[in-house]
Amino acid sequence: MEKPSNLLLKLSRRLFENPDKQEQFIDALINPQPFNPAILWCQNKPDILPFAVELPTNWQPNFVDRLLLGEKPGKHPLHQQGYFYCLDFSSVFAASVLLTIPQPVGLVFDMCASPGGKSVFAWKALQPELLISNEVIGKRLGMLISNLKRCDISPCTVVNRDSSIFAENLHLSSNLVMVDAPCTGQSLLAKGEKAPGCFHPTAINKSANRQKRIIANSAQLVAPQGYLAYMTCTYSAEENEQVCEWFLSKFPQFQAVRVSYLDEYQSHLSNIPSYRIFPQDRLGAGAFTVLFQNTEVGKAQEVDLDALSGVWMNTNRRGAENTENF
Q1: CA-based diameter of the chain, in Å?
Q2: How far apart are CA 41 and CA 318, in angstroms?
Q3: CA 240, CA 3: separation in Å to the nearest integer?
Q4: What is the bridge-based pairing of β-strands 174-180 and 64-66?
Q5: Helix or strand or coil: residue 171?
Q6: Is 116 left (phi over 0), alpha (psi -120 to 50) or beta?
Q7: Side-chain-facing half-sphere of 237: CA atoms under 13 Å
Q8: Do the strands 156-159 and 107-110 form a parallel or antiparallel pair, or are they unpaired?
């Protein structure tokens, strides 16, 4: 058995008081095991499913299936035809907070969208009048656009700007803003991937500061009575519960929403309604999720896409206009 690093040992002790839980957590990271694949049906399910599926959880929407180990949905012809999107079941857990949002929904803004799974989930679950998917990292745009087009996600606009730009130009406009925040990616280890330096305090603090900046900017977009969903795929409390507690102290008009069907996953590291799964739970590599609501009263501001032509950016064709619309 591989020996855990001192930083991993320290993290496990901060996360769990129980030594057995510490050991289970560490083992899940240094001896990663495969997780059940999951698919999100973008089109209606066929009458006869092409895959063997697990029994659904109580928070799993009917448009998602968790498949048996060994299934290879990404190689099926229906995948290329856009019938479904493949995603980690941890992402389904994180996005499941969206299922509590009442409809109809006007504008959904996905602040950190690539590769597109949360955007697809929100589009399917809420059927918004418009979905805007933003990705600030240029080299990640191609995958986002490809996935949204393949799955026929429409109406949708892909944009490529820093969150501060939207805070200035889309103030109080969005019924839902999603922040699947960039993080240290500690859960990559549970999938057998590399995440160098992910447990180092410097990396964690740098990530947490970036997350605070993004969530603060994102809050400016949320319309009165609208929602802000914050999610990560990392374990450190500094990037999760502590970011949320900081956010509520800076933006008292927001309150965390209890999601009753996730009660059993309530984080033991915070008193605010916030939810976690860990890799030893065997549902996925790990996720943290919380849903905030803007308690202010009023109407959403109208979004004039034409007036924002200086903000929006073409994402796949040179010489085209400033937006990529589907």
Answers
A1: 59
A2: 32
A3: 26
A4: unpaired
A5: coil
A6: left
A7: 14
A8: unpaired
- How far is the C-alpha of 189 from the C-alpha of 213, rounded, in Å? 26
Distance CA 27, CA 282 (A): 12
CB-hemisphere CA count at 13 Å for 311? 20
Instruction: Answer whether 228's CB lies under 8 Å from 292's CB.
Output: yes
Place of tokens 């089109």: 43
User: What is the pTM for the complete model shown?
Assistant: 0.94
Task: Return d(Cα 167, Cα 319) in angstroms, integer.
Answer: 27
Which residue carries 């060994």 as its tokens? 70
Give 2-28 pLDDT, tens digit per residue: 678 999 999 999 999 999 999 999 999
Q: How far apart are CA 256 and CA 272, in angstroms?
A: 7
Q: Per the structure block, which two tokens stand in for 276?
A: 């976690």
Residue type at 159 in one-letter notation: V
**AA letter at 314:** N
**pLDDT at residue 40 tops 50:** yes
